[in-house]
Amino acid sequence: MTAKTDRKDVPPEDAAPRRRMTLLAAVCASLFLALAVGGYYGYHAIHMRKLKPVALPANGYATDMAYYDLPSMTVSLGSGAGNMPPRLRADMSLEMARKDLPSIQGYEPHIVEKLNAFLANVSPEDLRDATSLPWLRSEMLQVVNQGAPAPIHAILFRELVFM
Fold first, then answer.
1. Of 64, 68, 70, 120, nearest to 90 (Cα)?
2. Burial 9-23 (b: 16+ CB within 10 A, else e)
3. Which of 4, 82, 129, 159 could pair with 91 as two cysteines, CB 3.0-4.6 Å apart?
4. What are phi and psi of 115, to 5 degrees?
5. Is 139 exposed, middle or buried (0-12, 13-18, 19+ CB in 10 A)?
6. Is residue 151 classed as helix, strand or coil in its secondary structure?
């Protein structure tokens, strides 16, 4: 008649060893996976105990920075064309070490004066470029740090309006 080529025609005694081999392969793969995952986490758990935790300061923050809010400033920019010169309204904060905050508070009028003088000399064309904000921030930081009683790390703009 016909040759036995269909799987349905395979005798049951040949299917049992094949099932056992599949089951054995699945058990071995599961055991290998469990050992690999357990070994990975076990290794890292042992080595994490050797690391010392970082102690946070008493205030609970990992940084010792403070922010000092300057008063809002409205400055007429230099070399304006037309009747009304363009103006810039800025609301800024200074970032500094917390321990330096008292010394900067007494120096605030000098900082505001320096920033007003600098901004009065900035032309409106300097502020129209896409890279003008980082440039303005770095220039203002240099101006503020000249003669400051403590280093100021950054100037943060809360509001910057070009009118």
1. 70
2. eeeeeeeeeeeeeee
3. 159
4. -70, -40
5. middle
6. coil
Tokens of 147: 């003669």
In the block, tokens 């000399």 appear at 121
Region 30-53: mean pLDDT is 74
Tokens 């900067």 belong to 104
**How far is C-alpha 141 from the chain's CA centre?**
21
**Per-domain boundaries in the chain:** 11-50, 65-162
Rounded CA separation 126/54 (Å): 45
Helix (H, G, I), strand (E, B) or coil at 161: strand
- What's the pTM? 0.58
CA distance 93 to 95: 7
Residue 141 confidence class, pLDDT cut points 50, 70, 90: very high
